[in-house]
Amino acid sequence: MRISEVVERTGLEALNAAADVDISGVYISDMVSDIITGAQGGNILVTLQTHKNLIAAANLVDVGMVVFTHGKRPAEDVVELADRAGIALFSSPDHTWAFAVKLFELGMR
Amino acid sequence: MSACAHRWAMTDIRSGYLVVEGCYHCGARSSFFSTEPVAPIDEYREGSHFWEHLAGYQAVTFNLRCEACGQRVDLGDMMGLMLSTCEDGRCEIGRMALELGKSTSIYVALCADSTHASDRCVSDEGIAALNDYFNQRLRSRRKKILVVPCRMCSSVDRCRGYVIADTGLTDLY
User: Is residue B79 part of a domain?
Assistant: First the structure.
């Protein structure tokens, strides 16, 4: 599934411009130390954390996109760091569980 | 040299605390990994150093093991990874960043002793395996990860970057 399809079907708001690449799998975590040991390349990373360390971890494992739930939005310098790393950032008004259900209903596993 | 084209995977993943101490006598910083339920906070003398607690972060440690040949690389000498944003032409890592451009992300593997007075840092074998591991996992063809040892920093304590550690989660205010 491509990023654009996930965006369209789950009502995400894009926070930066990034390539519309294939994504596979989902990882939900609010700890950067957990992300580097658990997330896989191409995953949708769902999180509440909006700081730069999160981008450092997401870039290292090459996640496909990052979704900040509960309407959270990172500061501009965090978006700039994500731009530099080529990481697509999105915001969802849903809380994490509700967004996870939407991904499950899309067939994401 | 091994004939195996290694397929590295994380092994021995342990959760705990990265504890950072500073010497108020000479300004050196030292760190260690603790698996105790509560991060230790101590003040003590060790030789010429007077260590005091600076910070404790939730973190993980891991080793790498090749799924093909079983070779294991111990990364016990690595305290953390930092995404470098250094572009200082006087620093070797900064110069590399300027030369390699934005498609390469440089991560500094941090060892326990910021002064490198003991002449030890993250092992060459560990650095090579980390580079293989993280680049093998990349899906973006234009992206590259370069892991370098912190001994390459002109000054680790003044280096610019973002350490992959969970800060503040256990602090009480």
Answer: yes
Residue-range definition of the domain harbouring residue B136:
8-163
Distance CA B32, CA B26 (A): 19
> pLDDT tens-digit profile of B123-138?
999 999 999 999 999 9
Q: pLDDT tens digits, residue range A22-68?
A: 999 999 999 999 999 999 999 999 999 999 999 999 999 999 999 99
Name residues whose C-beta falls within 8 Å of residue A65's C-beta, 6 or more positions apart in sequence: A3, A6, A18, A23, A44, A45, A87, A88, A89, A90
Are B162 and A56 in contact (CB < 8 Å)? yes
Three-state DSSP at B115 gives coil
B112 domain residue, yes or no? yes
Cβ separation B81–A62 shorter than 8 A: no
Residue pointed to by tokens 């970057």: B161
What's the ipTM? Answer: 0.92
The domains of chain A, with CATH numbers, are 3-105 (3.40.1390.20)
How many domains are there within chain B?
1
Flag whether residue A86 sits within 8 Å of chain B, measured between CB atoms: yes
Residue B168 lies in a domain: no
Q: In this complex, is the C-beta atom of A48 within 8 Å of any C-beta atom belonging to chain B?
A: no
CA distance B107 to chain A (A): 8
Q: What is the pTM of this model?
A: 0.91
